[in-house]
Automatic annotation (TrEMBL):
Region annotation (Disordered) ranges: 695-725
Protein known as: ATP-dependent RNA helicase SUPV3L1, mitochondrial
One of the GO BP terms on file: mitochondrial RNA 3'-end processing
Main location per the UniProt record: mitochondrion
Amino acid sequence: LSAGEVLKNLNKFYKRKEIQRLGAENGLDARLFHQAFISFRKYIMESSSVSADLHIILNDICCGAGKVCLLGHVDDLFPFFLRHAKQIFPMLDCMDDLRKISDLRLPPNWYPDARAIQRKIIFHAGPTNSGKTYHAIQRFLSAKSGIYCGPLKLLAHEIFQKSNDANVPCDLVTGEERVYANEDARQAPHIACTIEMCSTNTPYEVAVIDEIQMIRDPARGWAWTRALLGLCAEEIHVCGEAAAIDLVTELMYTTGEEVEVRNYKRLTPLTVLDYALESLDNLQPGDCIVCFSKNDIYSVSRQIEARGLECAVIYGSLPPGTKLEQAKKFNDPDDPCKILVATDAIGMGLNLCIKRIIFNSIVKPTINEKGEKEIDSITTSQALQIAGRAGRYGSSFKQGEVTTMHRDDLMQLKEILSEPVPPVKAAGLHPTPEQIEMFAYHLPDATLSNLIDIFVSLSQVDGLYFVCNIDDFKFLADMIQHIPLNLRSRYVFCTAPLNRKEPFVCTMLLKFARQFSRNEPLTFDWLCRHTKWPLAAPKNIKELVHLEAVHDVFDLYLWLSYRFLDMFPDAVLVRDIQKNLDDIIQVGVCNITKLIRASQSAAAPDTAAVVSEDFPLSRTKRDTRLVSDRHGAKSTEALSIAVEVPGERRAKNLKAYRSAPRQEDLKSHGRGSLANRLLREGLLTQEMLRQLESEWQDQRRNGRYGVGSKRDDQNSSKEMGKKKK
């Protein structure tokens, strides 16, 4: 057979609309059809021989091409193509079964207990600091039984304490912790839990679902969908932004349940100021500077304390106990700490007495629905959530204020805050362990990561839902794929709550899985040996970051201990040392500026004085960092040295660090000079200044300024002499 003729007819076969339609009917969507054809074509073109029946068909097609009476047609290749496709995609043989398993179009039917009762849905809608959650909690406390579902451990812990303080026995249930109100460990009629831990089988009189707008969250939205559709309670009190009202109403329409909406207004006024802060010299007691990166947290706190002011620090990776202590320090009227530097972690879960919110930046790195990192302006919802923390009802500040650090950001912030919050359009879903197990039954040779991929590609959802991002799940599945585990255990390990950007935590999960697969219990001694416990107080930022990672490892152990009690037997001991570690981290955070100085000294002793109160984090430098981050590179912000950038990248950052203007260089120029002002604003570096001076001198020597330049230079020299005197 002529290879050219065969290739031409194979490509003709691929382009036939009828063949593509037949492929779709047999489970081959456009992507699978293309991959199957590439493989099929390669098989034919590169094989030394093919089966006799396929050879006959190819011969008939090639010989009959162009003749009036065709011996064969390219469509005759389809049975051979389909047979080949089923060899490389085994799921095609059981496609109908797999489609039924991955059909996600009727999530309400997954919860028969909830569908068996008529539930009353009450939506408490309003902005931050409007009392919406307070009214829902009052109904929770007055009920015979109830469950509170919140997005954070801090929120669940707050309701747990409030309930027991009000003599309403309440248990605390989070992924890592169980605290019983009764000494005999009997379950109390009330439960405060993180939303992923709520039970859809236990009946309650009242359920409270907090922050319902997070039902749209690309990673965790499924937990709110599950709680809303599945909680078996007579009354469901939903709290959150008004933007979620329409979606909740539509979802409840599919269950035959009506929604009662109660709207709330903010209890204290919130004012957007007409001026930016511009300088840290303008800070006032009760101010909170909001940053969106750790490096900015370190930089700003260092500059504040250089001015003789004390500040509290709160960011996402801090343990809950440390966050509470820092909040307590900031709120205490007798404590000299009157300034707070924080990330958007303050948006929920902490009660803070803030007078003024100052956005250090209005751009934030985010993860989109595809799991890709993007850097964009904060959304209206995020801006309102953070700004709303100012002027909390019942605090010493009767009204809140909000502004920006930089003048150029203020107008954009006003625009963001004035825009309506876009409505929440869809609710998240996630495949259950049972669904994945049924997939594995049909595809026993597929890896867990492949099973998830196939499930998502085949899943069908209607317009009210979307499938949540599963990149973290797949990352862990690939990481532990080589470890022999049964499917259910493997699934549990892959749903463990950890930050995959923390190498130490990921390494410890790998060790946990390997030890588990050997059926060897992970004892307290084993954990201490692998985490090098006991640990000393941190001497620099790098050590503080490591302590935070160790705290996450202890959290991971506790989380797994509630799923595999016999294999993780020492949860009580681990919880004790975690509390000790929390205290050590608190000491480190209280001395964070000392740690920053130590980090700078260790990284570049000759450049320790680079960042000072005369050199604040500039807008230009911040924008440069964002461009770098957009391309996946580490920040070149000076303070990242010896903090998060090890090895070869440290040299790169040192170069950027040393190019920054030094204190003595700044002093060589008058404080009010243009050069000094440009240096302080970050628009000019010392290296650029030297280069400009060199170019200017070269131009003078070459006579680039024409006749009279020499006289002008002499006049300039006299002027310089007068200034010196």
